[in-house]
Design a protein that fits this description.
alpha/beta, 4-stranded mixed β-sheet, single chain, 9 helices
Length: 317
Amino acid sequence: MSEEILKKYPELAVEGSPTVKQRLDICNNAVTRMAIEASQACIKNWGRLVSDITHLVYVSSSEARLPGGDLFLAKGLGLNPETQRVLLYFMGCSGGVSGLRVAKDIAENNPGSRILLATSETTIIGYKPPSVERPYDLVGVALFGDGAGAMIIGSDPILGKEQPLFELHTAIQNFLPNTEKTIDGRLTEEGIGFTLARELPQIIEDNIEGFCKKLIVGFPDKDYNKMFWAVHPGGPAILNRIEKRLELSPEKLNASRRALMDYGNASSNTIVYVLEYMIEESLVIKKENKGDSEWGMILAFGPGITFEGILARNLTV
Protein backbone atom coordinates (compact mmCIF):
# COMPACT_ATOMS: atom_id res chain seq x y z
CA MET A 1 0.00 0.00 0.00
CA SER A 2 1.18 3.52 -0.77
CA GLU A 3 -0.10 7.08 -0.90
CA GLU A 4 0.00 6.84 -4.69
CA ILE A 5 -2.42 3.89 -4.63
CA LEU A 6 -4.71 5.58 -2.08
CA LYS A 7 -4.85 8.74 -4.22
CA LYS A 8 -5.82 6.67 -7.26
CA TYR A 9 -8.29 4.54 -5.27
CA PRO A 10 -9.51 6.73 -2.33
CA GLU A 11 -12.40 4.32 -1.75
CA LEU A 12 -9.90 1.81 -0.27
CA ALA A 13 -9.69 4.06 2.80
CA VAL A 14 -13.48 4.12 3.28
CA GLU A 15 -14.76 1.64 5.85
CA GLY A 16 -17.18 -0.91 4.36
CA SER A 17 -16.70 0.23 0.76
CA PRO A 18 -17.15 -2.56 -1.85
CA THR A 19 -13.65 -2.48 -3.37
CA VAL A 20 -12.88 -6.07 -4.35
CA LYS A 21 -12.80 -5.12 -8.06
CA GLN A 22 -10.29 -2.31 -7.44
CA ARG A 23 -8.15 -4.52 -5.23
CA LEU A 24 -8.01 -7.29 -7.82
CA ASP A 25 -7.14 -4.76 -10.54
CA ILE A 26 -4.10 -3.78 -8.44
CA CYS A 27 -3.18 -7.25 -7.16
CA ASN A 28 -3.51 -9.23 -10.38
CA ASN A 29 -1.02 -6.94 -12.11
CA ALA A 30 1.28 -6.57 -9.09
CA VAL A 31 1.73 -10.27 -8.34
CA THR A 32 2.47 -11.04 -12.00
CA ARG A 33 5.07 -8.27 -12.17
CA MET A 34 6.78 -9.44 -8.96
CA ALA A 35 6.65 -13.12 -9.99
CA ILE A 36 8.27 -12.33 -13.35
CA GLU A 37 11.05 -10.36 -11.67
CA ALA A 38 11.76 -13.08 -9.09
CA SER A 39 11.64 -15.82 -11.73
CA GLN A 40 14.02 -13.99 -14.05
CA ALA A 41 16.54 -13.58 -11.21
CA CYS A 42 16.17 -17.27 -10.35
CA ILE A 43 16.65 -18.43 -13.95
CA LYS A 44 19.72 -16.21 -14.29
CA ASN A 45 21.26 -17.78 -11.16
CA TRP A 46 20.37 -21.25 -12.42
CA GLY A 47 22.37 -20.63 -15.60
CA ARG A 48 20.30 -22.57 -18.11
CA LEU A 49 17.91 -21.37 -20.81
CA VAL A 50 14.30 -20.43 -20.08
CA SER A 51 13.38 -22.92 -22.84
CA ASP A 52 14.71 -25.73 -20.59
CA ILE A 53 11.81 -25.21 -18.15
CA THR A 54 9.25 -27.98 -18.67
CA HIS A 55 6.79 -27.28 -15.83
CA LEU A 56 5.54 -24.28 -13.87
CA VAL A 57 4.06 -24.36 -10.34
CA TYR A 58 2.61 -20.98 -9.37
CA VAL A 59 1.43 -20.14 -5.84
CA SER A 60 -0.58 -17.10 -4.69
CA SER A 61 -3.29 -16.13 -2.22
CA SER A 62 -3.43 -12.55 -3.51
CA GLU A 63 -5.22 -12.76 -6.84
CA ALA A 64 -8.33 -14.26 -8.44
CA ARG A 65 -8.95 -14.48 -12.21
CA LEU A 66 -9.42 -16.81 -15.16
CA PRO A 67 -7.04 -17.62 -16.71
CA GLY A 68 -4.88 -17.61 -13.60
CA GLY A 69 -1.59 -15.96 -12.80
CA ASP A 70 0.28 -19.06 -13.97
CA LEU A 71 -0.62 -18.24 -17.59
CA PHE A 72 0.38 -14.58 -17.31
CA LEU A 73 3.67 -15.56 -15.65
CA ALA A 74 4.39 -18.09 -18.40
CA LYS A 75 3.61 -15.45 -21.04
CA GLY A 76 5.73 -12.81 -19.29
CA LEU A 77 8.73 -15.14 -19.11
CA GLY A 78 8.36 -16.35 -22.68
CA LEU A 79 7.88 -19.99 -21.64
CA ASN A 80 7.15 -22.61 -24.27
CA PRO A 81 3.34 -22.93 -24.79
CA GLU A 82 3.78 -26.66 -24.08
CA THR A 83 5.05 -25.93 -20.54
CA GLN A 84 2.82 -27.83 -18.13
CA ARG A 85 1.32 -25.56 -15.44
CA VAL A 86 -0.04 -26.13 -11.94
CA LEU A 87 -1.83 -23.36 -10.06
CA LEU A 88 -2.08 -23.35 -6.24
CA TYR A 89 -4.47 -20.65 -4.97
CA PHE A 90 -5.36 -19.56 -1.42
CA MET A 91 -3.07 -21.91 0.49
CA GLY A 92 -1.84 -19.05 2.66
CA CYS A 93 1.39 -19.38 4.59
CA SER A 94 1.90 -23.07 3.77
CA GLY A 95 1.71 -22.42 0.02
CA GLY A 96 5.46 -22.16 -0.57
CA VAL A 97 6.23 -25.57 0.92
CA SER A 98 3.10 -27.03 -0.72
CA GLY A 99 4.46 -25.84 -4.05
CA LEU A 100 7.86 -27.32 -3.26
CA ARG A 101 6.24 -30.69 -2.47
CA VAL A 102 4.23 -30.65 -5.71
CA ALA A 103 7.29 -29.63 -7.76
CA LYS A 104 9.29 -32.43 -6.12
CA ASP A 105 6.63 -34.98 -7.12
CA ILE A 106 6.63 -33.71 -10.71
CA ALA A 107 10.44 -33.85 -10.92
CA GLU A 108 10.60 -37.40 -9.57
CA ASN A 109 7.98 -38.65 -12.01
CA ASN A 110 9.23 -36.84 -15.12
CA PRO A 111 12.92 -37.61 -15.77
CA GLY A 112 14.83 -34.65 -17.17
CA SER A 113 12.11 -32.15 -16.22
CA ARG A 114 12.90 -28.74 -14.75
CA ILE A 115 10.16 -27.09 -12.72
CA LEU A 116 9.96 -23.39 -12.02
CA LEU A 117 8.25 -22.79 -8.66
CA ALA A 118 7.10 -19.17 -8.30
CA THR A 119 5.28 -17.53 -5.39
CA SER A 120 3.88 -13.99 -5.29
CA GLU A 121 1.82 -12.13 -2.69
CA THR A 122 0.57 -8.64 -1.83
CA THR A 123 -1.30 -7.52 1.29
CA ILE A 124 -3.44 -5.00 -0.64
CA ILE A 125 -6.06 -7.72 -1.18
CA GLY A 126 -6.74 -7.62 2.58
CA TYR A 127 -5.96 -3.98 3.42
CA LYS A 128 -8.36 -2.28 5.85
CA PRO A 129 -8.46 1.38 6.85
CA PRO A 130 -7.35 1.95 10.48
CA SER A 131 -10.14 1.65 13.04
CA VAL A 132 -10.13 2.08 16.82
CA GLU A 133 -12.68 -0.75 16.91
CA ARG A 134 -10.12 -3.15 15.42
CA PRO A 135 -6.82 -2.52 17.21
CA TYR A 136 -5.71 -6.09 16.39
CA ASP A 137 -5.53 -5.09 12.69
CA LEU A 138 -2.35 -3.18 13.54
CA VAL A 139 -0.66 -6.52 14.34
CA GLY A 140 -1.42 -7.77 10.85
CA VAL A 141 -0.19 -4.56 9.21
CA ALA A 142 3.07 -4.81 11.17
CA LEU A 143 3.51 -8.55 10.58
CA PHE A 144 2.59 -9.22 6.94
CA GLY A 145 4.51 -8.14 3.84
CA ASP A 146 4.57 -8.26 0.04
CA GLY A 147 7.01 -10.00 -2.26
CA ALA A 148 7.76 -12.87 -4.60
CA GLY A 149 10.14 -15.82 -4.74
CA ALA A 150 11.25 -18.50 -7.19
CA MET A 151 13.17 -21.78 -7.30
CA ILE A 152 14.12 -24.36 -9.92
CA ILE A 153 13.47 -28.01 -8.98
CA GLY A 154 14.61 -31.08 -10.90
CA SER A 155 16.19 -34.52 -10.55
CA ASP A 156 19.60 -35.73 -11.77
CA PRO A 157 21.39 -32.35 -12.03
CA ILE A 158 23.72 -31.89 -14.99
CA LEU A 159 27.25 -31.62 -13.60
CA GLY A 160 29.05 -28.51 -14.77
CA LYS A 161 25.80 -26.80 -15.76
CA GLU A 162 23.77 -26.93 -12.54
CA GLN A 163 24.75 -26.46 -8.91
CA PRO A 164 22.10 -28.02 -6.64
CA LEU A 165 21.50 -26.35 -3.28
CA PHE A 166 19.14 -28.74 -1.47
CA GLU A 167 18.18 -32.37 -1.95
CA LEU A 168 14.52 -33.04 -1.11
CA HIS A 169 13.63 -36.37 0.50
CA THR A 170 10.46 -37.23 2.46
CA ALA A 171 7.61 -34.73 1.95
CA ILE A 172 4.32 -34.91 3.85
CA GLN A 173 1.20 -32.85 4.48
CA ASN A 174 -1.18 -33.18 7.45
CA PHE A 175 -4.27 -31.22 8.43
CA LEU A 176 -5.51 -31.04 12.03
CA PRO A 177 -9.19 -32.02 12.28
CA ASN A 178 -11.60 -29.40 13.66
CA THR A 179 -9.13 -26.50 13.38
CA GLU A 180 -10.42 -25.02 10.12
CA LYS A 181 -11.67 -21.87 11.90
CA THR A 182 -8.27 -21.12 13.49
CA ILE A 183 -6.99 -19.45 10.30
CA ASP A 184 -10.11 -18.08 8.62
CA GLY A 185 -10.11 -16.12 5.36
CA ARG A 186 -13.14 -14.86 3.44
CA LEU A 187 -13.32 -13.12 0.07
CA THR A 188 -16.02 -10.43 0.32
CA GLU A 189 -16.97 -7.21 -1.45
CA GLU A 190 -14.34 -5.48 0.71
CA GLY A 191 -11.49 -7.84 -0.26
CA ILE A 192 -10.12 -10.73 1.78
CA GLY A 193 -10.66 -10.67 5.52
CA PHE A 194 -8.33 -12.85 7.62
CA THR A 195 -8.86 -13.87 11.22
CA LEU A 196 -6.12 -15.64 13.19
CA ALA A 197 -7.21 -17.27 16.45
CA ARG A 198 -5.09 -16.50 19.50
CA GLU A 199 -4.56 -20.20 20.17
CA LEU A 200 -2.74 -20.75 16.82
CA PRO A 201 0.81 -20.73 18.32
CA GLN A 202 -0.28 -23.16 21.03
CA ILE A 203 -1.88 -25.55 18.52
CA ILE A 204 1.32 -25.56 16.45
CA GLU A 205 3.43 -26.17 19.56
CA ASP A 206 1.19 -29.07 20.63
CA ASN A 207 1.46 -30.81 17.24
CA ILE A 208 4.91 -29.95 15.88
CA GLU A 209 6.86 -32.77 17.49
CA GLY A 210 4.49 -35.49 16.33
CA PHE A 211 4.61 -34.10 12.80
CA CYS A 212 8.41 -33.98 12.76
CA LYS A 213 8.61 -37.58 13.99
CA LYS A 214 6.62 -38.66 10.91
CA LEU A 215 9.14 -36.89 8.68
CA ILE A 216 12.18 -38.60 10.15
CA VAL A 217 10.89 -42.18 10.43
CA GLY A 218 13.90 -44.39 9.68
CA PHE A 219 16.31 -41.45 9.86
CA PRO A 220 19.32 -42.53 11.96
CA ASP A 221 20.07 -39.31 13.91
CA LYS A 222 17.02 -37.86 15.64
CA ASP A 223 18.85 -35.14 17.57
CA TYR A 224 16.97 -31.99 16.52
CA ASN A 225 19.92 -29.74 17.32
CA LYS A 226 22.07 -31.61 14.80
CA MET A 227 19.62 -30.65 12.04
CA PHE A 228 18.94 -27.39 10.22
CA TRP A 229 15.51 -25.75 10.56
CA ALA A 230 13.99 -23.78 7.68
CA VAL A 231 10.67 -22.81 9.28
CA HIS A 232 8.11 -20.44 7.80
CA PRO A 233 8.03 -17.58 10.34
CA GLY A 234 4.30 -17.10 10.81
CA GLY A 235 5.15 -14.76 13.67
CA PRO A 236 7.53 -14.46 16.63
CA ALA A 237 5.21 -16.42 18.93
CA ILE A 238 5.14 -19.43 16.58
CA LEU A 239 8.94 -19.53 16.31
CA ASN A 240 9.30 -19.18 20.08
CA ARG A 241 6.86 -22.04 20.71
CA ILE A 242 8.62 -24.37 18.24
CA GLU A 243 12.02 -23.55 19.74
CA LYS A 244 10.68 -24.28 23.21
CA ARG A 245 8.86 -27.54 22.38
CA LEU A 246 11.75 -29.05 20.38
CA GLU A 247 14.40 -27.65 22.76
CA LEU A 248 16.27 -26.06 19.87
CA SER A 249 19.36 -23.93 20.34
CA PRO A 250 18.49 -20.26 19.62
CA GLU A 251 20.67 -20.11 16.50
CA LYS A 252 18.69 -22.92 14.84
CA LEU A 253 15.94 -20.50 13.83
CA ASN A 254 18.26 -17.66 12.81
CA ALA A 255 17.31 -17.81 9.13
CA SER A 256 13.59 -17.76 9.95
CA ARG A 257 13.95 -14.84 12.36
CA ARG A 258 16.06 -12.86 9.86
CA ALA A 259 13.47 -13.38 7.11
CA LEU A 260 10.69 -12.25 9.45
CA MET A 261 12.65 -9.18 10.56
CA ASP A 262 13.64 -8.14 7.03
CA TYR A 263 10.49 -8.98 5.04
CA GLY A 264 7.72 -9.77 7.50
CA ASN A 265 5.44 -12.74 6.99
CA ALA A 266 5.15 -12.61 3.19
CA SER A 267 2.90 -15.68 3.15
CA SER A 268 3.97 -18.33 0.59
CA ASN A 269 7.12 -16.38 -0.36
CA THR A 270 8.74 -16.42 3.05
CA ILE A 271 10.17 -19.94 2.90
CA VAL A 272 12.15 -18.86 -0.19
CA TYR A 273 13.73 -16.06 1.84
CA VAL A 274 14.45 -18.43 4.74
CA LEU A 275 16.24 -20.91 2.46
CA GLU A 276 18.19 -18.06 0.84
CA TYR A 277 19.44 -16.95 4.27
CA MET A 278 20.21 -20.55 5.21
CA ILE A 279 22.45 -20.92 2.14
CA GLU A 280 24.18 -17.66 3.01
CA GLU A 281 24.81 -18.77 6.60
CA SER A 282 26.00 -22.24 5.49
CA LEU A 283 28.60 -20.74 3.16
CA VAL A 284 29.96 -18.54 5.97
CA ILE A 285 30.14 -21.49 8.37
CA LYS A 286 31.82 -23.64 5.70
CA LYS A 287 34.39 -20.92 5.06
CA GLU A 288 35.19 -20.78 8.78
CA ASN A 289 35.43 -24.61 8.99
CA LYS A 290 32.92 -24.73 11.85
CA GLY A 291 30.82 -27.52 10.39
CA ASP A 292 27.08 -27.31 9.87
CA SER A 293 23.90 -29.38 9.84
CA GLU A 294 23.67 -31.36 6.62
CA TRP A 295 20.15 -32.70 7.15
CA GLY A 296 17.12 -30.77 8.30
CA MET A 297 13.49 -29.73 8.01
CA ILE A 298 11.62 -27.35 5.72
CA LEU A 299 8.33 -26.53 7.48
CA ALA A 300 5.28 -24.30 7.05
CA PHE A 301 1.79 -23.99 8.56
CA GLY A 302 -1.34 -22.72 6.84
CA PRO A 303 -5.14 -22.78 6.81
CA GLY A 304 -6.64 -26.07 7.84
CA ILE A 305 -4.63 -26.01 10.10
CA THR A 306 -2.31 -27.60 7.54
CA PHE A 307 1.27 -28.71 8.32
CA GLU A 308 3.67 -29.03 5.38
CA GLY A 309 7.10 -30.59 5.85
CA ILE A 310 10.07 -31.80 3.82
CA LEU A 311 13.11 -33.69 5.10
CA ALA A 312 15.98 -32.20 3.13
CA ARG A 313 19.74 -32.26 2.75
CA ASN A 314 21.73 -29.03 2.50
CA LEU A 315 24.27 -29.53 -0.30
CA THR A 316 26.07 -26.24 0.37
CA VAL A 317 27.64 -27.31 3.70
